[in-house]
Design goal:
By secondary structure, the chain is of the alpha+beta class. The protein is 61% helix and 6% strand. The chain is built from 30 helices and 5 strands. The chain has helices at 43-52, 64-67, 70-73, 76-82, 102-107, 165-172, 176-188, 192-203, 208-224, 228-239, 246-262, 268-279, 281-292, 295-305, 309-317, 322-339, 354-364, 368-378, 390-404, 408-421, 423-439, 443-454, 461-478, 481-494, 498-514, 518-536, 540-556, 560-570, 584-596, 600-615; strands spanning 6-14, 19-26, 87-96, 127-134, 148-151. It has a 5-stranded antiparallel sheet with strand order 3-4-2-1-5, with helices on one face. It is globular and about 90 Å long. This is Tetratricopeptide TPR_4. It holds the Pfam family TPR_8.
Amino acid sequence: MSTDLYGVRVLNVDAKRRSVRLRVFVVYYEPAWGTNDLLPDDPSFFFRILWEGPRDRPDRGGTLQDLVEQDDYLDEGWVDDNTSRFVARVERVATRNHPMDADAWKRLSTFYYEDDGTWPDEHLLVQGDYDVEVTHVRWLDALRVGDSWATTSYPTEAAPAPGEAEYVIDAEDGDTHAAFVLGWLRQERGDLDGAVAAYRQAADTDNVDDKAKALVYLGDLYAQHDNVQDARVAYEQVVDCEDVTDDGQRYRAWASREIRRLTGTQTWVELTLSTLEQDGRDQALHALTDTCGSDAVARFGMALAQKDFTSARTILDSIDDAADRASCAAFGLELAALWMPPDSPWMPEDDEGDVSRILELVGATGRSPEGYGLALDMGAIAAESGDDSVPEMVVNRLYVRLFEERDVDAVTRFVPFAEQAHPRVATGALGFLAWDAQERDDFDAAIAWLRRGAALTDPDPSMAAGAAFQLGKLHTQLGNVEDAKEAFTQAEEGFALLEHRLLAAQQQAELLVDHDDQAGALVVLARAAFHEARLELSEEDDGARSGHRLAHLLDEAGEHRAASEVRRLAEKFLAPGTETAKDASATFHFAQSILEIGHRELGDSLLRSIAKHRNS
């Protein structure tokens, strides 16, 4: 892993002047380097800084990563040749602790690690402040005042910008990325028709992410020239792109926002942030008040947008109207989704970050479920699921707060919205409500909650399987045998992890044995043996062959129903074929299981078959 050389902090962003002021800290000190020229001044360093940014931001478009592929970013020659396309000017405006004297070398450590945006002994570090002017304001979109990060980037020697010729040649040879860069270059020099043609060529690709990127830039080009109709067509084509990755989702979200802007249907947060950036606070407050219809909600939203959380809480405490408090919650949820770091895990621990402060205020409204529903109605929170879905992460964090407070009433109000928009989160919430009902011995209510969770099989059958498993256990406890069997069967089929499938099968087999259904238990234990063999054997084909071997032996023993079940499972992976010694795994586990429930004759017969097969 590379060693960080510098730390970077954003001091100011001036979009109108296309400039950013950065503070650069030297965080690695090698005595052999001497005491001079420790600070970077070459524009190539600042191009690298702008490209990497503090972190990926899928909700913001226009970053350098759209134009510059990672391989080019890592190519020193490419960076030197192309830096001037992006960085117009660099000026160091302040210097501290530089050049160093001998005493400074003694005071400083060799290396300083970044810790939550700061470095130890910052006041002692060699550092400089720089004004960096870029060629397009979009290169600053990912930066916010206060952003800090460590970097392995370094300066090289930037050269003057090359012309378009190399991209023309590559585009003519079918390179769609070259066509995209060519479109941007032509756009920068005012060649509208040439840029349109290049972007359209770039969009003619099987790579759906690259297609979405080219089309969203084409839409922006049309919009900048007041061609609203063609801009909307381009943006709508982006929204229609399917099977995109996280990058593609960023372009789809970008296009959706632009469509709302062009059609005058911006969400409250979009309107607030865009007006705040372009026209200032007073105009943004006026626009938000007109849109949401409440001066108090507008003042709360403006305080949140400017990260004045203390004022936001004071304003919220003065609001009595329930509808206004729900509106405050809706604004906060949308803003949290916009500012949620994309690498946040599914259930991140609470911290002191902006998103946590916002969600704390959302919870303080007392109307967060209604705010969630309002945000869905306005299109401010997308109804999408997946491990990388930022809206789902925010909604899950909202639910976790309600869960930690054991706010049964709020979770009950939350669930209907989540069932429709974020079913994976709803499944967890329904499980909590079922637990609460069981604690109160209200088993009918618990069953009803778990049934709703088990019904949410789309998009994640495994989450619904968890609810079905708990439902099976509850039915078992209450003596509802048929209902328990049905629930355990759903759980076994729906679980993604073999360990969970095995557990569901074992629970059902135990239920059947306890109710004297030996024939049914044999069938379920055969499936359990197959799951256990797959867990035990590293190769998928070995597990399937093991299942086929067990099915064959069960047929010989006259247990055709159990044989059929195992064969059905095994054939999903491999047709019957040549047997190996590993094929005994499922048979062994099945024999052990049935011996435990008293099937000694069949169990002994299967174990003898294994021994005979191994000795032959």
